[in-house]
Amino acid sequence: MTADAATKFDPSRAAEYERQSRIALAGYDACHDLAACMLAASLGAGSTATILVAGAGGTGNEIVAAGGLEPSWTFVAVDPSEPMLDLAMSRVTAAGLAERTQAILGTIADLAADRLYDAATLIGVLHHLPGREAKQAILHDIALRLKRGAPFVLAGNHHAYASQPLMMAAWAERWRMNGATADEVRAKLGKILQGADPPESEEAVAALLLEAGFEKPQRFFSSLFWGAWITRRT
């Protein structure tokens, strides 16, 4: 996430993030669990590795899931939003993983380019970055900080929202299922349409990754607009 994109995740937004994210993404915990499993399958069970967690702010679930699965993994959690990073680290601490996690307030571009990581994740971030250039930049910055062949998990929304009216309607029903009124649903969907810029297709996601220095990705999870992929640094 860039510093500009982080400004919308103020303390009030951070406080509601955990509940909202689990409603917006059906299968939130399953996606994070599978991401940890895909990384373990790629690196090898019982491996020793340092994982770069880009845009780590929020629930810290990628660290909690992966840290619980692999006791010899350590994590570098990077996010430019202090409230969101604090929230993530509170979850990480509650899970007993604080000693294995280094928190860095900033962007991936702020990290030293000569330290290379064994794997990386970017979950729930790409669709918050406006325009193709910003998306390309963060993926390129991550690729530069990974060892050759290192696995990378990317997850987030794709498809232009307005291009998929049935999925938008199902998304509205998802909020209604969790107690939102008709007015609240309209407000949430309006905010989504104005506040995010997802890649327009799965092919667009693959093109971004290939241009940034990654292999063709393999999708391992899908939920309405959301997709999760694994790839490797070329």
From TrEMBL:
<dbReference type="GO" id="GO:0008168">
    <property type="term" value="F:methyltransferase activity"/>
</dbReference>
<dbReference type="GO" id="GO:0032259">
    <property type="term" value="P:methylation"/>
</dbReference>
<dbReference type="InterPro" id="IPR029063">
    <property type="entry name" value="SAM-dependent_MTases_sf"/>
</dbReference>
<protein>
    <submittedName>
        <fullName>Class I SAM-dependent methyltransferase</fullName>
    </submittedName>
</protein>
<keyword id="KW-0808">Transferase</keyword>
<dbReference type="Pfam" id="PF08242">
    <property type="entry name" value="Methyltransf_12"/>
</dbReference>
<keyword id="KW-0489">Methyltransferase</keyword>
<feature type="domain" description="Methyltransferase type 12">
    <location>
        <begin position="57"/>
        <end position="150"/>
    </location>
</feature>
<dbReference type="InterPro" id="IPR013217">
    <property type="entry name" value="Methyltransf_12"/>
</dbReference>
